[in-house]
Amino acid sequence: MRRRQGQFATVHNVPVILDLGHWGLKGIVGDDARRRITIPHALNELNRDDWNNLVEIGDHAHPGYIQVGTRYYEVGEIAQRHSAVQAESIARYRRNYYGVLMCAVIAHLFEPNEIEGAIVFASYPPGDRRHKDDLESSLLGRWQFTNRHRDYNITVREGGSYTEPLGGFWNWVIRDDEHGRHYDNQEYDPDRATLVIDLGGGTMSMLPIGRDQLPDFSMAESFPIGFNSVAREFMRELRANHREMFRAARVIDDTLLHEALAKGRFYGGGYRDGIDVRTEVNRAMGRLVDSFRSAYEHLGGPMPYGQIILTGGGSAVLGEHLRVLLNHQRVDYAHDDLSQMHFANVMGGLKAYRELFGVTDDAA
Questions:
Q1: How far is CA 274 from each of CA 177, 268, 269, 291, rounded to the nearest angstrom?
Q2: Distance separating alpha carbons of residues 276 and 147, to the nearest angstrom
Q3: 358: pLDDT confidence band, cut at 50, 70 and 90?
Q4: Which of 79, 283, 348, 358 has CA atoms 20 to 30 A from the CA of 272?
């Protein structure tokens, strides 16, 4: 990464990096594990009567309820229970949507006396690049909000944005040592182009990055099939092919489900050697694989790229299946710890923020 010197953040202007995906809104401030969070991507606006009822019974102190200005919302898990509908594309990039979710993240990460102002660096899927100005505008300005009886009054003084796959690329290319100092990944071949594949909950995106480390948006591919679609189809296949085993199972544990999708064997029901579910996995991945193969062929297949990087939470589960389909000698993950892959794009955003503006954050 090329460095540019500058003094951007102070004690009162902490960098907050955000990534709003189908699975949730990820927020991170520095490398301190206490300063990162994922809130389920769900939001409902409440009317004044609903809010007053919550106040009467004391439920408004729940972390999922927040007052922003003169409007009232439920966010995250509690909104999810009430069947909140996710906004799509430009509808997300409004103060009363992305801005409210940002306030909820800040309330989880900081006490009111810990933050007076923020610099926000937020990501978007490649297909939403034309809305990047709307995204940044939805976060800027003064915010007054109340959460858990705590009153916040902050100003987002600066905002920036980046595309999600680029965050995964940055997290892979920019490494840090035990002292937080950055260095370039020795596995990176800067003389060859890179293909970044971002498998999220609702979409898969494929973004070529040139030898100048700049993304080629003209060649970007994105389609609305992600890990969630595969997981739902896999559950249907399991129930259809193993009726007796799953007759009483209203919910299948995510850990068992993800392991079965990754390995092709289901270890529930006391089966020590597991049940072979490769057929169900292949069927569940059918639509994703078809779209992936078409996009990969359009991007030239394996030959143009010196390295291919897998990012996004879905890649942690389905990455080895994608590796086979890619037929490429240098496929790597954007995060060394697969259990943290859902944070790869936002962690890459933090590294790039530090590189581009020559700063360290004071909140970590």
A1: 40, 7, 9, 30
A2: 48
A3: low
A4: 283
